[in-house]
Amino acid sequence: MLKGSVTIKDGCGHVPSLATGDLFFLLAWLLWWQAGHEDHAGPDPPRKVSAALKQGQITPTELCQKCLSLIKKTKFLNAYITVSEEVALKQAEESEKRYKNGQSLGDLDGIPVAVKDNFSTSGIETTCASNMLKGYIPPYNATVVQKLLDQGALLMGKTNLDEFAMGSGSTDGIFGPVKNPWSYSKQYREKRKQNPHNKNEDSDWLITGGSSGGSAAAVSAFTCYAALGSDTGGSTRNPAAHCGLVGFKPSYGLVSRHGLIPLVNSMDVPGILTRCVDDAAVVLGALAGPDPKDSTTVHDPINKPFMLPSLADVSKLCIGIPKEYLIPELSSEVRSLWSKAADLFESEGAKVLEVSLPHTSYSIVCYHVLCTTEVASNMARFDGLQYGHRCDINVSTEAMYAATRREGFNDVVRGRILSGNFFLLKENYENYFVKAQKVRRLIANDFVNAFNSGVDVLLTPTTLSEAVPYLEFIKEDNRTRSAQDDIFTQAVNMAGLPAVSIPVALSNQGLPIGLQFIGRAFCDQQLLTVAKWFEKQVQFPVIQLQELMDDCSAVLENEKSASVSLKQ
Amino acid sequence: MAAPMQRWVGRGRHWTFARVDGGSCHRREAPTGSTSNRIRGRSSVAQQPLYTTQKPRKGEHKWAAVVGLEIHAQISSNSKLFSGSQVRFSAPPNSLVSFFDASLPGTLPVLNRRCVEAAVMTGLALNCHINKKSLFDRKHYFYADLPAGYQITQQRLPIAVNGSLTYGVCAGKKQSQVIPKTVRIKQIQLEQDSGKSLHDDLRSQTLIDLNRAGVGLLEVVLEPDLSCGEEAATAVRELQLILQALGTSQANMAEGQLRVDANISVHHPGEPLGVRTEVKNLNSIRFLAKAIDYEIQRQINELENGGEILNETRSFHYQLGCTMSMRDKEGKQDYRFMPEPNLPPLVLYDATSLPAGADPQQVINIDQIRETLPELPSVTRERLVQQYGMLLEHSFTLLNEVGLLEFFQNVIKETRAEPKKVTSWVLNTFLGYLKQQNLAVSESPVTPSALAELLDLLDSRTISSAAAKQVFEELWKREGKTPGQIVSEKQLELMEDRGALEQLCHSMMEAHPQVVMDLKKGNPRVINKLIGLVRKATQNRADPAMIKEILEKKLSS
């Protein structure tokens, strides 16, 4: 029953006009895909890309070039800070050789990926969207980057973010805000046209959410198949929800943080953004596992690779609905989709329980204290001495430190450093930091209790509403926005649990809405299995990036064609 | 890296205060704030020497000094505490720096097993309770040679606590008696060393060398049970010997492997403790004692003259022999301690708690480390006293000089001479020569085998002890001759021919009739003059006892 009601098909008869000529190339690429398929395979939807590579229907170099050209044509989205064209083409060439010799490294060989610009990439500038690290070229790869490369993935570039990942809009980096590709989708444009209040289309573009908005936009605009984000309080799940993607935050300790420039060490997790759950599982399979360079990764053997069974039956599942997540600020549309999703599980035989996470309301304040204290500590290394920005002032070391840090960090970062140091002062430590740690424990215990009561997976909203226009978003400051936008996501980080945002449906405005599934610690596979089942039920529509898509709408309305699954 | 490591840093005036003049560049931070429990009573073991001012005024009572030490010992390990870069003294600047040591963003600490084992070993040797679970914390301050802006240390829950260190203080008339004393150990914590700042005043530059940044340190915090410079010096010396015996630190103060800060206050016994100062930059045991005694006297004088003691950090100026305020303008630093989120709690096991089937590479077993503990200096001393019948103070001397014990044991191994004889020769003659020429045992021109051969000649009565001294002096000249060769070349063999000696005595008596007359008149002491003359005539080759016997026989006949 939900299947019919949540899957919002575009029933609109007329064709929207294009916002910019760039979009043509998005289509051109999709058409090319289509053409490639027609050349080889007949009337079926395009083959999944990994299979296509294996079968030689397309070469990694061709794939890489197409993505590069899409990156150029979608430059206005501001998704990428650095495009590593040469690196990617070279990797593609090597991948091509492997395919020719029948020595493919696996599902990720030859697959274009993007990486958030707070992961260290050897020889490629890594800025964290901050003046502080402008021009900083790390001499080593983050473990997760290395693992992707070891699997043969092609690194297309480094994606935009809020400075040092502090934000929920991808609007507060030195390279400017990221634009949500859905702003230019047929689905959204048509809805807007129906509303006479909407004028000035060009300036009404939407935020992606954040802080991994660049990665979300990159995947959403088809410039790559998967992207790494980071998730400290929801930074992967939030933009995934706003951009109609799968946004996965693995269990803390499952994936190495080595090389991820930290925001909050005790909560940071590399996140995965893909167009479908299976793709996320493939990437997780490549990344998960202990890392001798990260002492917080766990050694316990975890089932690998992360093959997700197709769940035929959910009758043995118990889905928990945390009652504290039903808050007045939640938009009615999200609320209704949430309850429909619960109904769906129930109607398919799952047990759906209301559960209580009693300390939820204290979570965001607690998160704020713990986040800022670690930020204050982690940012102490940026003093202009060893690397990164240094001011011209040299009257004294202290003056140099002060000016360097004033010039290097934006207001948001400086504000968090200031409050974090305040909380760590001897006279405040017990009242703020220690208390926050105790509350953190209570929040983590809330989840443990919920899971101990027999719940397998929790179902919650990911965000309060769909993406808002940039001009709307910046009416509130970063801190207020973060507090609102992380409301459903940060508690998971404090508890170290795995969570995934799955796109469910389009809002009345034609924008994606996501729901979040939260699993038991290190039950990532179970979580993704449930998410995969749900994904299949809701049939979330493919983003339609311009009018010419009508020509292949038959193809594009089939979710499989555009989610371009890596898997067969 | 975007920029070379060694770059200038514009420096503020106050940096000057943190410097030892000239080249020395070490700087340590103020104590963690929890280092000495000032309220706790003093150990009953330590006896307080009482100080008086030069001119005690009427009704005035005496002063007592309270001294606590914080000792940083560099762990002897191949690699640093949290990174894989090598640990080596005097390597080219910034040649031993990993990405982590330079605090490149995204790098994470990985604990070095060897450093943990060294801490456990040291803790056990110092009678500490080893915490099965300990934690790491970040201590924040900005300094150019601290790249991360914080030091990883163990503030809340250190690896070892509540130990003790027994040391011996010389007392008695000739300072020859050794009195054992004990100082309590509050804790031992693992922490990172900082880099080094080299200040170039001429160019207003500071050069940073990160070779030392991240090297593992054991911070040993002593309770304020000490009361004077000498106690502190001997306690530190004992700790140094223990660390060296364990191999957990080379503990060479000149190379900065052992660094001591002293917290000093004075008060009237029975009254609350006084305000303390901290004295830094104590880079030798001698200066440690000097600085403490100077500071105690300075505080007494200050108080006697109506002044007050500031809770401040002072630096010892070894050329002037005084302590000087470092005038830290910033005032008390707040280190904003925070748990280190990248390191899980450090969990140690013992035989009872070791999980079954645990990978020995992944766990540290305290009991196993206990079994590998080598002989500690106190036990070595006891053994020397037992085995060789030497005095306790002699055993102290043997251990205190680097290499002397080994030298002694090598001589013992090769000679037939009595251990007492060996002890006397090594401690008096050999050590005397070394001291006189300011040489280390390793620089000695006399090898253990040569001394052993010499003592054999003495033992077999081939030479007299006076001749032996002569041979030793020849050996010291490094002419490559063996004692035997020297003896035969110089004809130093003992005169075994009684007839010849009788002849010599006879002619000596005839040559000195006045002495013989005095003797016969009843002045027996003048016989020594005759003995001396005979010995001289034999070039010290005759046994004085035999000469005396012959002379007495002749006189009485």
TrEMBL record, chain A:
The molecular function terms of the Gene Ontology recorded here are: ATP binding; glutaminyl-tRNA synthase (glutamine-hydrolyzing) activity
Q: Which GO terms describe its biological process?
A: glutaminyl-tRNAGln biosynthesis via transamidation; mitochondrial translation
Q: What are the protein's UniProt keywords?
A: ATP-binding, Ligase, Mitochondrion, Nucleotide-binding, Protein biosynthesis
What Pfam families does the annotation carry? Amidase (PF01425)
Q: Does the keyword Cell division apply?
A: no
Subcellular location field: Mitochondrion
InterPro entries per the UniProt record, alphabetical: Amidase (IPR000120), Amidase_dom (IPR023631), AS_sf (IPR036928), GatA (IPR004412)
Q: Which residues form the active site?
A: 116 (charge relay system), 211 (charge relay system), 235 (acyl-ester intermediate)
- Superkingdom is Eukaryota
As recorded in UniProt, its EC number(s) are 6.3.5.7
The record's similarity note reads: Belongs to the amidase family. GatA subfamily.
Tell me the subunit arrangement: Subunit of the heterotrimeric GatCAB amidotransferase (AdT) complex, composed of A (QRSL1), B (GATB) and C (GATC) subunits.
Name of the featured protein: Glutamyl-tRNA(Gln) amidotransferase subunit A, mitochondrial
Please give the organism: Mandrillus leucophaeus (Drill)
| Origin organism lineage | Eukaryota, Metazoa, Chordata, Craniata, Vertebrata
Query: Which gene specifies this protein's sequence?
Result: QRSL1
TrEMBL record, chain B:
Going by the UniProt record, its keywords in alphabetical order are: ATP-binding, Ligase, Mitochondrion, Nucleotide-binding, Protein biosynthesis, Transit peptide
Give the coiled coil ranges. Answer: none
Main EC class the enzyme belongs to = ligase
Start and end residues of each Asn/Gln amidotransferase domain: 406-555
Q: Where is the composition biased (Polar residues)?
A: 32-50
**Origin: domain of life:** Eukaryota
Cellular component per GO, a single term: glutamyl-tRNA(Gln) amidotransferase complex
Job of this protein: Allows the formation of correctly charged Gln-tRNA(Gln) through the transamidation of misacylated Glu-tRNA(Gln) in the mitochondria. The reaction takes place in the presence of glutamine and ATP through an activated gamma-phospho-Glu-tRNA(Gln).
Quaternary assembly: Subunit of the heterotrimeric GatCAB amidotransferase (AdT) complex, composed of A (QRSL1), B (GATB) and C (GATC) subunits.
Q: What is this protein called?
A: Glutamyl-tRNA(Gln) amidotransferase subunit B, mitochondrial
